[in-house]
UniProtKB/TrEMBL annotation:
It comes from the Bacteria. The chain crosses the membrane at residues 21-38. Pfam families: Flp_Fap (PF04964). The keyword Transmembrane helix applies. This is Flp family type IVb pilin. It comes from Parapontixanthobacter aurantiacus. Keywords: Membrane, Transmembrane, Transmembrane helix.
Amino acid sequence: MTNFKKLIRDEEGATAIEYGLIAALIAVALITALGSLGNNLNNTFNAVGDELSNANS
């Protein structure tokens, strides 16, 4: 019975799970932010390329 009580009071596993969830949340936020940044950079380079093409014409 005392081992069962110790097991219930042990919070090390819960802490590890919480850290894992925080890391996953940070990863999702980074992927979303970098995806948006990539799209903006792509649009910027396309606009610059178009302007250079029009300047040569």
